[in-house]
Specification:
Blueprint: E1 5-6, E2 12-15, H1 54-68, H2 77-91, H3 100-107, H4 113-118, H5 123-148, E3 158-160, H6 172-192, H7 197-215, H8 220-232, E4 240-242, H9 244-255, E5 257-260, E6 263-268, E7 271-277, H10 282-286, E8 294-300, E9 306-308, H11 314-321, E10 328-334, E11 342-347, E12 349-352, E13 359-365, E14 374-380, H12 388-392, H13 401-414, E15 419-423, H14 432-439, E16 446-453, E17 458-463, E18 474-478, H15 485-495, E19 500-503, E20 512-518, H16 519-523, E21 535-544, E22 560-561, H17 598-614, H18 616-631, E23 636-638, H19 641-666, H20 677-694, E24 711-714
Parallel strand pairs: 14-15, 15-18, 18-19, 19-22
Antiparallel strand pairs: 1-2, 2-20, 3-23, 4-21, 5-12, 6-7, 7-8, 8-9, 8-10, 10-11, 13-14, 13-24, 16-17, 16-21, 20-21
Helix pairs in contact: 1-8, 2-8, 5-6, 5-7, 6-7, 13-14, 14-15, 17-20
């Protein structure tokens, strides 16, 4: 999810940070691909104690923020106020633990946070967190009592779901009322998911007691990460502090490989559950571990102690299972639908994370004038990845999204495809150099992106490699989750009129560039083995298209727009707190092609609109969108069972189905192409585009026109 541009200092990498984790697959695994969970825990019982490097790290973060951040804004009382609110929200987002009196007592130090950080003093974080642990412990008896009591689901009451209008309880009576509504809501959800009343109560009790236990296991690194990231995000939403563990996981995501067993894990009410197995990974080849199995213990080597991992934070479970290739890890597993645990010994191996790599498929769509189908090569690219460590070391074969895409395009060319479709939907970003070099596969030499720094200097970054790998018709598929590096590519393709952009009305709108500063290497440059102190991901620049437009806030507008529920979700850059505003710079000097023009776009959009209006599935989507628009501004949810059931049946079930669909399309076994009605319409737009380019007649838009089934072959 990050974009990186190597600069002269080998300890610094610049990046165009990707889309925030919104509706992404909430798995934390692949035995190390940790998607930045909120907490990492280590200590049994008690509260975290300050780390030996807290002060030094805090002083470094404060210094870099004031000297290097794009806004060059000092940490003052205004930032301190944002920091205060963000930190409390990070701990208690639903406002169900702290009391108003707690917040009032904390607020006495709100205006002094900027003074404390100048001394490297993070005692406020520990003060707040100690109180948080007290309140968490106090809530467990209330949960136990409510789960044992007879609750009235025929009572006309509601629960607040809008965090902006939620308030902290002032009295113990208000605390109990908040939690009664919370438990009633949880029980209604369980009922809708067909869980028996007895099992639902057991499940919820375990959920909240497990949460409390994990809170007491928190370590200093994670508290510091949460506290300092609350500061950094007060400047903009993409600046953050990464603890050493988070930094390690981030680097794994960029190089797309690690040593482990090859399994995606997720936490469920205190248990570590297998969500997916990586095809061809060690666990997949072993054959015993299955999806939905629960891992309750982990042992090292053949005879090592079996560590109980029930209620252990998922990050720590991942660390236990991950290890050097060729070594043995023993898993104590409760197989799905069983109660008796079994022990599996699995030899760790190198895991290639192919679910995040570029993959291709050729599909056949529509009919040419000679009666044969159009052949379209689909490139599914979920991220712009690059093995940064290998690149720094000068390795010639380091992992690269551009190299993988080049191979796919060369294969498509050999097999005579008529068009290439680059699918960047849900692609949250990646390596900035990769976005430039990948754009160069489709354009000849010329500017791809312009970058402005805090001193208002603008630098142009060009594709310097003469020639192209694919010079034929091109379409780019995008949605509101296409961010950062994806927007660089889509924007350049659009500015050059090199291809057609199809999708949501606009992409995410992420147009800032971050630098990843390894604090250990920065602070101890003369030491050959600098300590691991984490990293600061800091916004230092803003990027612009060749046309001079920034993608910040506004994104890249599609040439042909298709209706989509994602278009209506509040998940764009403009929906984030403290986002940097849109602006523009001068247009770069480049030569556009004539592959796309306004008259063509008008025709393609009109034809698509006619098909969409006549399509039953798009009509159902329009109904879903209208229902969502009605519901999205709701501040509360009714806890009257009859109302709750009605609302669930109208929308919640569909939401669950959509979430399930997204997980399937994001997991290790995700398909290259999902032939749903949205994709099919994108392909009909594509064949219309091919007909216009070739001068052929376009298909009839009669109501009786049948949908193309489409055939495909994977690559």
């Amino acid at each position: 999810m990050e974009c990186h541009l190597p600069v002269a200092d080998s300890n610094v990498l610049t990046q165009s940070d990707g889309l925030p984790m919104v509706r992404k697959l909430s798995l934390v695994g692949l035995m190390g691909i940790v998607l930045l969970p909120t907490w990492v825990f280590a200590n049994e019982g008690g509260s975290p104690t300050p780390g030996p490097n807290d002060r030094q790290i805090t002083l470094a973060v404060k210094s870099y923020l004031e000297r290097e951040h794009f806004l060059r804004k000092p940490i003052d009382d205004e930032i301190a106020a944002r920091w205060f609110d963000t930190f409390l929200s990070a701990l208690d987002p639903l406002k169900i633990y702290f009391l108003q009196s707690d917040v009032d007592s904390f607020a006495k130090k709100k205006s002094s946070l900027d003074d404390l950080v100048r001394r490297g003093d993070v005692s406020f974080a520990y003060e707040v967190y100690d109180r948080f642990l007290e309140r968490v412990d106090e809530r467990i008896p209330i949960v136990e009592e409510l789960l044992k009591s007879k609750l009235d689901f025929n009572q006309k009451e509601s629960i607040v779901i809008d965090r902006d209008i939620a308030v902290w309880a002032k009295t113990q009576g208000e605390v109990r009322d908040k939690w009664k509504k919370r438990i009633k809501y949880d029980l209604l959800v369980q009922k809708m998911e067909k869980v028996s009343p007895e099992e639902a109560r057991k499940k919820l009790l375990r959920r909240y007691t497990s949460f409390a236990k994990r809170m007491h296991q928190m370590n200093a690194d994670e508290l510091l990460e949460t506290y300092l990231s609350s500061l950094t995000s007060s400047l903009d939403p993409h600046t953050s502090f990464m603890s050493p563990g988070t930094l390690e996981n981030f680097e794994i995501t960029m190089r797309l490989q690690l040593d482990g067993i090859g399994a995606s894990l997720k936490g469920e009410d205190g248990y570590t559950t297998v969500a997916e197995l990586v095809p061809g990974g060690a666990a997949d080849k072993d054959g015993r571990l299955k999806k939905k199995d629960r891992i309750v213990g982990v042992g090292q080597n053949r005879e090592g102690e079996m560590v109980d991992v029930v209620d252990m934070n998922l990050n720590d479970v991942v660390k236990l299972i991950r290890g050097k290739r060729g070594t043995v890890v023993r898993l104590k597993v409760v197989p799905v639908s069983q109660t008796v645990p079994k022990v599996y010994d699995i030899v760790r191996a190198k895991i290639e994370l192919q679910d995040s790599a570029a993959r291709g498929e050729i599909i056949e769509e529509g009919i040419k004038e000679d009666g044969s189908p159009w052949r379209i090569g689909i490139v599914n690219l979920p991220s712009f990845y690059m093995d940064m460590a290998a690149a720094r070391q000068g390795q010639a074969d380091y992992k690269s999204s551009t190299r993988d895409c080049r191979k796919l395009l060369e294969g498509f060319r050999e097999e005579g495809v008529d068009c290439v479709a680059l699918d960047l939907r849900n692609n949250g970003g990646g390596s900035l150099p990769e976005s430039i070099s990948l754009t160069g596969l489709f354009i000849d030499t010329g500017p791809v992106v312009q970058i402005k720094d805090a001193d208002q200097r603008v630098q142009q970054y060009d594709d310097l490699e003469p020639g192209v790998v694919w010079d034929g018709p091109l379409v780019v598929l995008v949605n509101k989750f296409s961010a950062s590096a994806s927007e660089i590519v889509a924007g350049a393709i659009q500015d050059y009129r090199r291809g057609l952009v199809i999708g949501d009305s606009a992409t995410h709108g992420k147009g800032t560039v971050q630098s990843l500063l390894d604090l250990g290497r920065q602070l101890f440059q003369r030491l050959p083995n600098a300590p691991s102190l984490g990293a600061l991901k800091i916004t230092m620049q803003q990027f612009y298209r060749p046309s001079g437009l920034s993608t910040q806030m506004k994104g890249v507008k599609s040439d042909v727009k298709l209706p989509s529920i994602t278009d209506h979700l509040p998940v764009g850059e403009s929906d984030l707190d403290n986002a940097i505003p849109f602006d523009r710079v001068d247009t770069a000097d480049f030569v556009a092609t004539n592959n796309v023009n306004e008259s063509m776009l008008e025709t393609l959009q009109q034809r698509s609109d006619v098909r969409v209006a006549d399509d039953e599935e798009f009509q159902e989507l329009a109904t879903d969108i209208a229902r969502y628009e009605e519901r999205k501004n709701e501040k509360t949810i009714s806890l009257l069972e009859s109302d709750f059931v009605k609302e669930w049946n109208e929308g919640k079930a569909a939401d669950k189905e959509e979430e399930k669909k997204q997980e399937e399309n994001a997991g290790p076994r995700r398909p290259v192409v999902t032939r749903d009605f949205y994709f099919d319409e994108a392909m009909r737009v594509t064949t219309d585009y091919l007909a216009v380019l070739s001068g052929a007649a376009m298909p009839s838009l009669a109501k009786s026109e049948s949908k193309t089934e489409g055939q495909s072959e994977s690559r």
